[in-house]
Structure to design on (642 residues):
């Protein structure tokens, strides 16, 4: 029903020599009722991809299929979608009620039914007392809810969210994030949610698409994306602070970084030039006397529950996250790390892809 | 900085009062003159500054015409008022309608040579009626539009200024609003009617005031395209009443009454629309 499939979708601005490919063949199958988040840095094409699904951008190549229907040539209104914009895009001269009812009015839905649907959405979103207000009389969070209400009353197959939380303050954002989750659980409508904020992505997504420079880097459940990043980009993008990446040479059970030889508990997947990734929380700080990785400590940040230790291994910057109940190291000292082999991520420096 | 010094307050009031006198006194003089008889005005020089008792007669004479004290016939002003009103309304409403639509086309539609079209409209800013008056007259006369409402109004309707103003306003409307409307299923004209028009109503009100006065005050163009008396707007009417004969032959009371009558509709428009104006300025909806 509300499934979406993207089949090598492409988007190019301009022609000939000036052609600027912004989406370079994205393929993904999104099941009915699934909540998928598209995440990536600014300019990676994530909003463009969403707008192509919405029908606001033309599709240069490939196919987009919504609910078993190829929608490439359909107008946005005919695609059975609803969209929530970053700046809400409420009609400033219409009341909250009219804002939500406008689409239905155009679709010639009978008046009593419009009334019922708007009231129902207003009840879900707790907008009941605000229906006669104008958008300018509402707070940011309320406007955001009206924008969602406008999407809900259309009862579409697919909800599209274009960074809807980025104009809210931090507290409201966390609260609205929960509300969106609840709403999705309640309505079960397929949702595509674009954000540059990985916390939003991790918390909201059932599955997430990580994009970079117009390509899909990885598509998977947040746990998988975090535990097994498919590329160097994903490894460095997801996680805060990001994964430590050390470029060096693997030789058997040793890894050479800037003249320092790091012992590995088991052999690297292959010898030669490799990139080794290690999450800050997987440093393997323990009291054992076995030789390990020498981390030269530069600065320490206290975050409350944990501390961030910034230092260097060889000449490479390296960040470590340790529990704040542990005794903090002093700046200038050397810590010894014994990372567990199951926490090591290996990447090929040429293809950028994960090896093991 | 707000100062509260008595001297400064007296001074500023003095300046304001002076300003009001400079502007208002001629109008008062006109009004007083319209309440005297023609004889009183000409014979008692300088004229008395106290209103006389000839008000009703002067205005009746001006509005409906008739036999004057000098024995001449003066044409009725009422039809002239009507002609002025119709042309001013047609010019202002026509200008607003056309510029709204052309700005809509220029901003929201992609068509070949769109920029060229916009610049062509823009260039006509440099060609006011006075500059293109001969070719325009030729066209209007060839089309047989002399002495018609069409002749009085059509050449004045196209307006680069208004088009430009609406274009600038439309450019400030966020693209997301257009996209939201597309997702809601509103076609271009529906979007124009339901979103753009309500949002631009304060600009429309402002333009209406300006263009109504512009249309009402037209003098040179009507002078050219109307030859028959019964198509003359009121501004021309005043001129016609004071041309011919010496001071004694002119019914100054009727002339002054006509002047007052000619001033009333633009003043009314300004006063009535001012509320809209201020309202529009206070609650900006964006």
């Amino acid at each position: 029903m509300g499934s979406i499939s993207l089949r090598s979708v492409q988007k190019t601005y301009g022609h000939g020599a000036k052609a600027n490919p912004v989406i370079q063949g994205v393929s993904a199958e999104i099941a009915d009722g699934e909540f998928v988040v598209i995440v990536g840095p600014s300019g990676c094409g994530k909003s463009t991809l969403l707008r192509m699904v919405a029908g606001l951008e033309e599709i240069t190549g490939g196919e987009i299929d919504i609910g078993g229907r190829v929608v490439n040539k359909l107008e946005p209104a005919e695609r059975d979608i609803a969209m929530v914009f970053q700046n809400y895009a409420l009609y400033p001269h219409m009341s909250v009620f009219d804002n939500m009812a406008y689409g239905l009015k155009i679709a010639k839905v009978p008046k009593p039914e419009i009334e019922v649907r708007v009231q129902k959405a207003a009840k879900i979103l707790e907008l009941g007392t605000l229906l006669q207000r104008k958008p300018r009389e509402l707070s940011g969070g309320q406007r955001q809810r009206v924008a969602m209400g406008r999407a809900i009353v259309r009862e579409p197959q697919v909800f599209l969210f274009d960074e809807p939380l980025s104009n809210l303050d931090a507290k409201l954002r966390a609260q609205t994030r929960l509300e969106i989750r609840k709403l999705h659980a309640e309505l079960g409508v397929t949702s595509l949610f674009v954000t540059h904020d990985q916390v939003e992505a991790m918390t909201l997504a059932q599955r997430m698409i990580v994009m970079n420079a117009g390509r899909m880097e990885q598509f998977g459940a947040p746990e998988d994306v975090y535990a097994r990043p498919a590329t160097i980009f994903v490894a460095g993008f997801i996680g805060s602070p990001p994964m430590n990446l050390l470029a060096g040479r693997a030789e058997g059970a040793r890894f050479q970084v800037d003249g320092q030889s790091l012992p590995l508990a088991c052999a690297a997947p292959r010898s030669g030039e490799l990139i080794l990734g290690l999450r800050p929380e997987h440093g393997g700080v323990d009291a054992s006397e076995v030789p390990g990785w020498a981390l030269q400590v530069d600065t320490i940040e206290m975050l409350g529950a944990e501390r961030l230790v910034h230092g260097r291994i060889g000449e490479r910057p390296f960040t470590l996250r340790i529990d704040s109940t542990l005794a903090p190291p002093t700046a200038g000292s050397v810590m010894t790390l014994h990372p567990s082999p199951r926490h090591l991520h290996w990447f090929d420096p040429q293809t950028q892809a994960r090896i093991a | 900085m707000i100062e509260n010094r008595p001297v400064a307050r007296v001074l500023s009031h003095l300046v304001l009062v002076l300003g009001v006198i400079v502007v208002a006194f001629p109008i008062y003089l006109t009004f007083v003159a319209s309440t005297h008889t023609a004889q009183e005005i000409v014979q008692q020089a300088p004229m008395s500054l106290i209103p006389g008792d000839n008000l009703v007669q002067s205005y009746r004479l001006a509005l409906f015409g008739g036999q004057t004290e000098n024995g001449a016939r003066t044409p009725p002003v009422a039809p002239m008022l009507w002609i002025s009103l119709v042309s001013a309304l047609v010019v202002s409403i026509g200008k607003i309608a056309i510029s709204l639509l052309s700005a809509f086309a220029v901003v929201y539609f992609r068509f070949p040579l769109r920029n060229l079209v916009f610049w062509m409209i823009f260039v006509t800013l440099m060609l006011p009626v006075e500059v293109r008056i001969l070719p325009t007259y030729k066209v209007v006369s060839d089309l047989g539009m002399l002495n018609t409402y069409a002749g009085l109004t059509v050449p004045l309707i196209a307006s680069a200024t208004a088009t430009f103003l609406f274009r600038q306003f439309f450019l400030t409307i966020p693209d997301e609003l257009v996209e939201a409307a597309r997702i809601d299923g509103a076609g271009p004209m529906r979007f124009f009617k339901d979103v753009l028009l309500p949002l631009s109503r304060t600009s429309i009100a402002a333009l209406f005031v300006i263009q109504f006065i512009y249309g009402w005050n037209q003098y040179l163009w009507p002078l050219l395209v109307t030859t028959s008396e019964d198509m003359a707007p009121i501004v021309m009417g005043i001129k016609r009443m004071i041309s011919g004969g010496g001071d004694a032959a002119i019914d100054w009371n009727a002339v002054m009454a006509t002047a007052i009558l000619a001033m009333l509709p633009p003043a009314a428009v300004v006063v009535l629309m001012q509320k809209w104006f201020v309202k529009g300025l206070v609650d900006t909806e964006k």
Q: What stands out?
A: Chain B has 14 helices and two strands.
